[in-house]
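INFO batch 0412 | record 1 of 1 | parsing
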Amino acid sequence: MAPPNAAPASFLWHDYETFGADPRRDRPAQFAALRTDADLNEIGDPIELYCKPADDYLPHPAACLITGITPQKAQRRGLPEAEFARQVQSAMSEPGTCVAGYNSLRFDDEVSRHLFYRNLLDPYAREWQNGNSRWDLIDVVRAFYALRPEGIEWPLREDGAPSFKLEHLTAANGIAHEGAHDAVADVRATIALARLLKARNPKLFDYLLGLRGKRAVAKQLDLPSAKPLLHISRRYSASRGCSALVMPLAEHPTNPNGVIVYDLSVDPGDLLSLSAEQIRERVFVSQQDLSEGEARIPLKVIHINRCPVIFPAAVLKDVEGEQKGEYGAIVARLGIDIAACRGHWKTLREASGVAQKVAEVFSGGYEESPQDPDLMLYSGSFFSAADRQQMQRVLAMDPWDLVGQRFAFQDPRLEEMLFRFRARSYPDT
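INFO prediction complete | emitting C-alpha cells
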C-alpha cells in the first residue's frame, strides 16, 4: 500500500439537512458541524445554523416530513442564504481542515459547492487551499466490510446484502443516534462510527485517510502497466461488498482528474466488438432501460480528486488462516473470480485501440448543458480573475449599497446571479 498523507490538523465533521434531494436545485435547511483533532477528540463548540428559504423556492413536503424542519421553522430560526453560506465557508476554510461527513462527497459537498457558487463565493477553495482537504466516511465503511469486517456488526437488508445506512450501522453497533435526519445527531453519530473503525483497524483507517490526496491516488492508477486494482464504490452491488477488481484503461478525455476503468469480472467481448456509439448507449443507461438480454458495459470513471477507495490487488490475499498469502477467503466472500479476472485483463491488454475507443465513449454528447445560471457551476467556465475581483467587491459592500451599482462582469452568468443574490437574501434592496 502507498504511504498515507499526513493527518489533517483537524476534521470538521458536517451534515446538511435540505429541502429536497437535488443538491443543484434544492436548498439547505440546516447545517451542523463538529470539529475534532486528528485523533477524533472534539474541540471547540458545535456549529448549528438554519437557512431561510428564499421566496423563489418551494420546499419539498416529503423532505420536511423526513427532517422535521418546516419552512416556517427555517424562516424563524434561519439566516439569509448569503450569510448562511459565508458562515459555512468560514468554518470549512480554517487552515489544515479536512471537511468530512457521511455520503458527503456525493451530496453534502455538492450542496456546499452550489451554495457557495449561488452566493458569489469560491466553490472550491476550501477543499484545497491552506492544506485543506475533504473526505467521506461511507466508502471507508464499505472498505472495512469488504476487507476487514472483524469487530464490527454489519446490519443486513431484507435481501441479505449489507446495509451501509448510517442509522442502521449505529443501531447495530450500539452507537447513540437519537434523531436521525437531524444534522447535529447525524454528525455525532458519524464521529462515533469513525472512532469505532479507527479502533478496530488503525492501519486501514489511516491508509484510507491518505487517499484524500489525489497524488496518492494517481500513483496507483498506472495506465502504462494497467495493473488491476480493487475498487470500492456504490456503483458495485452491496452483495459483492461494493467491490470490483478493475483495470485502468484511459484518461478521461475532458476531465483531467478522471481515469476510466473496466470491471474485470465481466467478459470484455462487447467492449471490444462494439463501436464507441454502441458502447455509449450501454454505459449511460440504467439496467432496466436496456433490452432483454443486454447488460450495461461496466466502464466507470475514478475521480482522483474525490477520495476514491482503491487498493493494489494484493490486498485481496488472506492475511491469516490456511490460505494466508493467497487469494482465498476474502475473494470467495466478495465473489471475485481471480482466474476469470486475469483472463479478461489479458484479453484487454492484448487488444489494440481500447484506450482510444473508451475515450471516445466519454467525449461528451450524452447530456445537454443547462442554461440556467444556478445550474451552470460545471458547464460554465471558471470565472476570470477580473470577475472574481468584482464578486469580492460585491460581497464587501453593504447590501443597500448595491442598489443602482453597476459591475463590469465579463461572464454572462453574473448579472443574473447578482440579481438573484439580492432578491433571495436581501429582497428589500
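INFO post-check: The beta strands are 10-18, 28-36, 42-50, 97-101, 133-136, 229-232, 243-251, 258-263, 299-303, 309-312.
INFO record closed
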